[in-house]
Amino acid sequence: MAAPTPPGSDRSPSAGTTGAHKAWAGVFREATDKRVEAFSESISYDQRLADDDIDGSIAHSSMLAHTGLISQAEAEQIATVLEEIRQEIRAGRFEFTAAKEDIHLHIESALTARLGDTGRKLHTARSRNDQVATDLRLYCRRAIDRIDRALQELQRAFFSLAEREQGLVIPGYTHMRRAQPVLATHQLLSWCEKFQRDRQRLADCRVRTNILPLGSGALAGTSLPIDREAVAKTLGFAGVAANSLDGASDRDFVCELAFVLSLAAVHLSQWAEEWIIYSTQEFGFVRLPEGFCTGSSIMPQKINPDVLELVRGKTARTIGNVQSLLVLLKGLPTAYNRDLQEDKEAIFDSIDTLEAMLGVAAPLVAGTSFDRERIAATLERGHLDATTLMEALIAEGVPQRTAHETVGRLVRRAMTKGVALAELADEEFLADCKEWKASLRSALGASRAVERMVSFGSTAPARVADQMKVWRQRLEAAAGT
Ligand code: ARG
User: Fold this and answer.
1) pLDDT at 131
2) Residue 377, pLDDT above cutoff 90
3) For the segment 157-172, what is each residue's pLDDT rounded down to a tens digit?
4) C-alpha to C-alpha distance for 428 and 414, rounded to whole angstroms
5) Is residue 106 in contact with ligand 1, taking CB distance under 6 Å?
6) Could you give the CA distance from residue 437 to residue 472 in angstroms, rounded to a whole number?
7) What domains sit in the chain, N to C, each tagged with a CATH number?
8) Is the sign of the CA dihedral 421, 425, 429, 431 positive or negative?
């Protein structure tokens, strides 16, 4: 594919293509300035809408035939040639030039070059404004479906790792300080929950994306007899935009999608950050697959978590894109304004970035294992069982504030001695806690503490097994669809 002329690359006089070559040139007396062509082109990035543009045009022309605006034979010729053009674009045999602005004009002019007047009828009852809005919705809809599948793959990877690491107790952290023990399985499923919400948001965003703007015309609809429902049906849209002014210019779906993707990226970034920490020599909780690490050009011993760092780093641009899109829209009066052309690079970048991130995240998770010995070696450090002991006292009738203070004193005693709570003698417990009895020892130790967390959604093995069952069914059901 020939790239369009980049701005400033042509030092020759500024006269561009003569006006006569442009689809909209009738009223013009002067040719477009070459600098304007370079400045205003979108073909360098909207070529990726080619498939959707062709799908939209075929659906549109078949509707034009069915309402009698063109003949059946003409619609068939248009469809055949558009399919030829599709193949040429796919094969890289189609020439793109800034003079033809965007993908819509490229395809239409190629069609007209081959079909003459029949090609010149395709744009009947259509404007580039409702055309580009339609193309972008089709493109985003496909992206939503792909990303949903990729998120599901990632959930499967976390679920499989959770299955492999069943029974493993790890320290849970708040404020990056040891807090309470949890099952590794429980924590791995917590990522599945986040990605499930991302998928729900995608599905919800898809509902508003899946509305057909075509037929809105430039802004006011059309005086010609069209059948918008028929086009919606052909293209798989669930409905048609009800207001032509809004239909041609609504980009809410782009902003929404950018946000949904940025939040999914934020989840990936949080996970990446956690595993960067987990995989340090200091923590040593997880072993990352070496194929997903990179080395240093100067320090021969380094095995760096660059993939996770880039997942974290690339999240920034997805957040920036949400900002760009909102700012792009905020000053626009009713209906199409050319500013809207700037929506594409932002949303394409978010889609590309998230797909790239998901493409490495799932196999990285699949190749990771937890270092059980290393985790077990320090599990009893940090008094992870303090809260369970406090709750055991509460269960014995001690008021919560009293139990909290008592256990606080016991922890201080253990800290001073440099031992775990379970290593304190009964007399030491009794010195701070008059309710102390030997049976309370069953609350001590990380594994026993985990077993006691039995409320719904908690980390006890039985509760986590319930959740594993839910996830197994959910992921199997999704695989069957
Ligand atoms: N390339 C344009 C865009 O992306 C297509 C619509 C142009 N419409 C117009 N009236 N100039 O928004």
Assistant:
1) 98
2) yes
3) 999 999 999 999 999 9
4) 9
5) no
6) 42
7) 33-124 (1.10.275.10), 129-166+182-377 (1.20.200.10), 379-479 (1.10.40.30)
8) negative
Q: Is this model's pTM higher than 0.85 or not?
A: yes
Query: Residue 330 and residue 43: Cα distance in Å, rounded?
Result: 25
Atom of ligand 1 nearest to the CA of 344: 4
How much distance in Å is there from the Cα of 64 to the middle of ligand 1? 22
Judge if the beta carbon of residue 318 lies within 6 A of ligand 1: no
* The pLDDT value given to residue 20: 46
- Span from the CA of 130 to the centroid of ligand 1 (angstroms): 9
> Ligand 1: which of 42, 128, 135 to mutate, judged by most atoms within 8 Å of the beta carbon?
128
Which residue type sits at 105? L
129 pocket-lining for ligand 1 (C-beta < 6 Å): yes
Instruction: Calculate the average pLDDT of the chain.
Output: 95
Q: Is the Cβ atom of 185 under 6 angstroms away from ligand 1? A: no
Exposed / middle / buried, residue 411 (Cβ in 10 Å: 0-12, 13-18, 19+): buried
Do the Cβ atoms of 108 and 123 come closer than 8 Å?
yes
Alpha-carbon span 386 to 440, nearest angstrom: 12
CA 325 to chain centre: 16
Count the alpha carbons within 13 Å of 424 in the hemisphere toward its beta carbon: 30
User: In whole angstroms, what is the distance from residue 440 CA to residue 398 CA?
Assistant: 13
**Residue bearing tokens 């293509």:** 17
Catalytic positions: 175, 296
* CB distance 175 to ligand 1 below 6 Å: no
Where is pLDDT greater, at 398 or 478? 398
Buried/exposed code over 438-465 (b: 16+ C-beta within 10 A; e: otherwise): eebbebbbbbbbbbbbeeeebbbbebbe
